[in-house]
Amino acid sequence: MISKIAWGLIIVSVLVVAILLFFVLPEDNIEEIASEPDLTTLRGTEAGEVVGFIDSPTSARAWLGIPYAEPPVGDLRWRAPQPPDRSSDRIEALSPSSQCVQYASSLSAGESVSPDSIVGNEDCLYLNVWSPPNAVGLPVMLWIHGGGNSIGSGSLYNGSILAVHQKVVVVTINYRLGVLGWFHHPKLFQNTDVDSGNFGLLDIIRSLEWTRDNIDEFGGDPNNVTIFGESAGGTSVLALMASPLAEGLFHKAIVQSGSLRSTSLDSAINFTSDGGHSNSSMELVSRWFIKDGIAANRDQAAELQQSLDPVEFAQVLRRKKAAELLFAFEPGAFGMVNMAAYFRDGVVLPEDSWNASKLPNEIPAIIGSNRDEPALFMVQNPEFVRTNFWIFNSLKNKNDYLKRVYYGGLAWKARGVDSIAEQMTNAGNRNVFAYRFDWDEEPTIMFYDLSIALGAAHGLEIAFVFGHEDFVANSNIYPKDTNQETLSDQMMSYWANFAYTGDPGKGRNSQLPAWLNWKNSGKTSLVLDTPSDRGIRMIDQIITWESIREELIVDQGFNQSATKCDLYLEILNPLGLVRPEDLNVMGCTN
What we know:
By secondary structure, the protein is of the alpha/beta class. The protein contains 17 helices and 20 strands. It has helices at residues 4-24, 160-166, 178-181, 199-214, 232-242, 265-269, 281-292, 298-307, 310-319, 322-326, 398-426, 450-453, 462-466, 482-501, 545-554, 561-572, 580-586, and strands at residues 43-45, 48-51, 53-55, 60-67, 91-92, 102-103, 118-119, 126-131, 138-144, 169-173, 220-230, 252-256, 365-370, 385-388, 392-395, 432-437, 444-445, 448-449, 525-528, 537-539. It has an eleven-stranded mixed sheet, with helices on both faces. Helix 7 (281-292) crosses helix 8, helix 11 packs parallel to helix 16 and helix 15 runs antiparallel to helix 16. The longest helix is centred in the C-terminal third of the chain and has 29 residues, at 398-426. It is globular, with a radius of gyration of 24 Å. The termini are far apart.
């Protein structure tokens, strides 16, 4: 007979297999059949003739891996992207290009490697296009992926459903990431014509130039381009609105869970006093020099940075392999690295600090966030989640977990939506539309209720905007039911109507609840939710730092007072808004 211990091991093994199949692996684990070129997709571009394929089952015309810039390698590393050379051979755009260099993560397209591995290639400046059959003069929607400016790929997102269902042309792009996309060192730019470090942003601008010059071949209207992006992609949308180099290259903007931020050149260049863990450019170069053995310590590395001739300095850095550059960072959540970006260089971005009131008034904008943004970064964090038998997750303190998610979501909306919408509207832009995404109908997996633990977390709205979930490593968090399909159709309709007209209105079919611009009739944000919940509706709520402070102070619903004190400091201390009297009232004297 089999012992009880043996039976226990068998049961656990079966459950491990089940969780891998249901919770980790993508739904479709079948080897993809190579796409066949279709001559009806033959198009002319600045890089030469390209041929794509018919993307079943939507019948969208698709082109994957079109070069929009010269490979940024060798002497072109840390240089502004250049237009691609024209190929004498026909380009078969049948499969995605390599992703840009990054740490491996769940957002690593097509990679099956261990965490902390380096994946991707420096030769990565390619884009993908989907258009409906017989497209002519349609609105263009160019997607900028998220990932903290250090992970991700445009090839993760399939634009075929959005393109065909809403009669738009969809473009997704790669752009340089991490230290290859965002790096400013004064020695590196003394012999170049662009004194910048915003290479990721320059790549996006180059892709917009490609769109302006080539998209009519694919059925798109170059005079009606909407940029839309999520997280870091949303932040890049706002940065492009501020960039003089992007002026006239796009006409509408959608910001999904982004923020308005920038970094001074001094902050990017100089050492910081954080115990040697800074990722400033001076510190990074010191690590590289020490690793190579050309400097024994940080002091010698700093002296060497000063003494090297600019040409020799650039040669030393450009000789290094991309992986060697990236290994100077300690990867964080999902393989992201913490480093400065969006440099106020006076070239790509204004040199003086700016806020949303400085953004151009003539560009209509949709700006929104998800109700439970922080949950994505908490749902598997051992600080908040208990794991039993290696696979069964449960919340350690459900009440205070949800309090953290709730106030973190308010802070995200205050920073990334309401303050921006208010400033843009007050500056004269009457075409600002805000939203809050509330969908939270995930299943319970292995007794872990994801509708509570994950809810309307960061990034979950993307599947609704594109009409598919394949970009998610675990697409089984989506039930794929009528509710989800209905909300997805509604969101795609709003997004597309905005691309057509600059006003989401009542969607493409004029049958949806009216989405009013900011403060129209006293309303502010459109809540996006399913019919079986509270449905789509306008609300009049405005989240400010003061409203969060006031609500948090009087909230008596925490199980642990320390959680309340921590939240108060986490949200308000970076803004310099902490008041000693508040700490006394809340009992946070320690």
